[in-house]
Amino acid sequence: MKLEKVLLENYRGFKEPVTVDFESITAFIGRNDVGKSSFLEALNTFFNDKEFKFEALDRCVHCRDSEATLICCVFSDLPEQIILDETVSTSFESEYLLNGDGYLEIHKQFDAKGKQSIFLRANHPSNNGFSDLLSKKNSELKKLIKDCGLEGSVNLTVNNEMRKALWNHVGEGLVLTEQLVPLDKEEAKNIWDKIQKLLPRYALFKADRPSTDADKEAQDPIKLAVKKALNNQIAELEKISATVANYVETVAAKTIEKLSEFDSEIASQLSPNFTKDPDWAKAFAAFSMLGNDSIPINKRGSGVRRLVLFSFFRADIESEDDFEENNGIIYAVEEPETSQHPDFQKIVVETFLKMTENPLCQVILTTHVPGLAGLLPRKSLRHVVMADSIRSVLSSSREDENSFLDGIANTLGVHPNITNEVINPEKVKVILCVEGPHDVAFFETLSDKLHSENNDIMSIRVTENVSIISLGGESLQHWVNCNYLAKLNIIEYHIYDKDGDGKYQEFCDTVNQRGTQSSARLTSKRTIENYLHPKAVEEVFGLSVKIENSTDVPLAVSNIMKEKGMKFSNKGNVKAKLNREAVSGMSLELLRESDPDGDILGWLAEVKRLANNLET
Fold it and tell me: Does the pTM of the predicted model rise above 0.70?
């Protein structure tokens, strides 16, 4: 399942209802104490209510006793088949459990005393006598079946089959109304138990944990790993539990039998019963990480503990098998920049983006640090603001994008991130703008190689009136950098990857519509790596790969390396090596074979012409 939306009402600082859309990675941005962490805490209560119960202080202070606090989550990417009763498969749709948009919408309401009520907002039957079938017991459904004369056409031992038969019996007269369907009454409780097991796992890592022996920031990654391992062995564990339970119940029954010889009345009052399922995670609670000096990780500095956490994330994303059989996971990280060097902050963001390449993984974070916010995709940003004591959450999909991004830049003080490049307006005539550092390495290295064979081809490194910079792709920093460059009054020449879906087309259109000499274009191939010749790739990696216009080259090479058991085979490492080492093996002859349309030579020639003020 994927988390699509969250609705809060009367929760902490959010008195009025506020709805937030969620992406694969979602970042809450804003000043301190504006309410960013409220969403992470609310989700913790929603997903992990046994450990993190709703507290009185979670209610908005302006909330009346008669008003309920609401935490609502909406999910997409639902399983096609589910089991709600016995072992018979059904679906959310056939049970009328989806809202008007076809999503699973779960409401958790809390009254003034903290009592929880659970509902689904769903397009559900509202006909009298047929609107509450989910809460009816087997005996009650059987009676309805008999009253409708359907007993010979349905299995009376399976509840969901009886519900379907009853709804079908109404036929075209069945009226569906979007309503709140209770899941905490009668038999509906059992249905909620089944639905709850299908939800994604949610793991929250906070920034302000105390440094104690029970410091969860140090322990949670290991506990989460234990939980994942146990989930993968659930069938075996259930067998062990059943075996133990049968043995204990047998012993208990014999004990009661012997007790009856002493006092039959007391014996008759006893029966063997397990009060709760075994907690397997506690069996591995003693697992910890120690340094060479036997100092536990929770006694190390906060920066080291956070590095351990992020290293766990990086290791976890390489274990893709862990995601195959579960419902997905949501990692929520409060202020990931805490106690981290700026260089590590960049690695952290890259790790989050890599994690969310897996469709079963979502990341939620909070930050008020400009450098980290600038690295995040613009569509992932959620700006938490407060005006006239009312908190709200803004996003680019609901606001004018320029004013939205400008608001974030002003709030956080995001500045142009072009510190590694020297742009002297008196010398530089053209700025070659590309997405990221890999593209910079590609063009600098390739232009050097081509220039060594043909002096007429420009070398970007040695040409003083041309500068190349990375703008940051889809990130907030890209928008900031573009606005900054526009003020320099220097010709910009933008090159972006086609990327299969033309996601950078809007950037090209914006630049091309300026009415200046600045221009932008998309590659005709999927990405810049698609212009590499297979021979250059084989020279570096020692393997043969077929490169077509639509090939995901780093992924293709990565997959072949994994099949061969080669080291450093993850896609990120491969991409870096392609753009720095494989491109070094290119030549003018190989380029003309891999780029018969002459895209790259044409771009370099056009940049040179613009830099020298030459007419076409």
Answer: yes
